[in-house]
Amino acid sequence: MTTPLCSTSARRRRDPMLGTAAPAIRWLLIEHPGGWAPAALDSPGIHDDVADHLHRTALTVGGRVVLVRRPGRAAVPGPPELRRWTVLDLDGRQQWGTWRRSEDLLAAGAALLHGPADSLAGHPPDPLFLVCTHGRHDVCCAVRGRPVAQALAVRWPQQTWECTHIGGDRFAANLLVVPDGTVYGGLDAATAVDVVQSHLSGSVDLEHLRGFSAHRPPVQAALAAVLRAHGPAGAGDVTPGEVVADGGLWRVEVLGRGALPARSLVTVRRTSQPPARLTCRAEADATAYVWTAVVADPVG
Description:
The protein is α+β, with helices and mostly antiparallel strands. The protein is built from 6 helices and 13 strands. The chain has 2 domains: 1-214, Glutaredoxin (3-Layer(aba) Sandwich), CATH 3.40.30; 216-300, no CATH class. Strand 5 (128-132), helix 4 and strand 6 form a beta-alpha-beta unit. Helix 2 (48-61) runs parallel beside helix 3 (106-114) and helix 4 (139-155) crosses helix 5. The model has no long low-confidence stretch (mean pLDDT 92).
């Protein structure tokens, strides 16, 4: 009997997605045509010492490194092409550079460590749409991700990229919007276009929202709960205030902009799902958390 894809099983179980965005406050995107290794920085053309340096730097600053390529683009035989890299902060600052040799990426590492210098000359500050298609990490990402990347590239060709693993394989197809760090999951070619259009119009699609990478899971759940209770609104219209943790319970103050309440109090509870196979490569079942948020009446 063939084992179903982890994303198929997750959809059948209706696994909750909220609070599952992998935390990161800074992103390094490295253009790399493939083939991507199961661990992205093990991919050809990136020497071990440079890969280790980038990995350690990302851990130091609370960032992540992902490889990107244009949808449908295959590696070209011959000498390495001139490729791009960019470091993006959640506040919108970006720094771009180019690389051909592995050591050229040390400049990217410096920008990752110190923050982007906001060198946007020749690069519009439009959001980028990164779709995980990292099939050698999890087959679901390729099977479900590639059609989504292709569909988005038709509408937004300059803003759409395929990317390596961004977490949540069972929620494929997964979409990361940078620089704001919003993560969507459970997409297909049709829904992805609607989700991106809604996001660009200033309205987070709550049906497919996994969370906001700038924040820890309970805060992600609290922000989403306020958007659901008082939205529609955009990702930038909610920010966390005071957060108080008490075991498996969190009390989160959410500050709103625009039509949202200026201040809301949210109680978030963490529970566990029954063990299940969470990735296609998993050798055993594992337990995932579920984040349940309740919004009190607006304060002030």
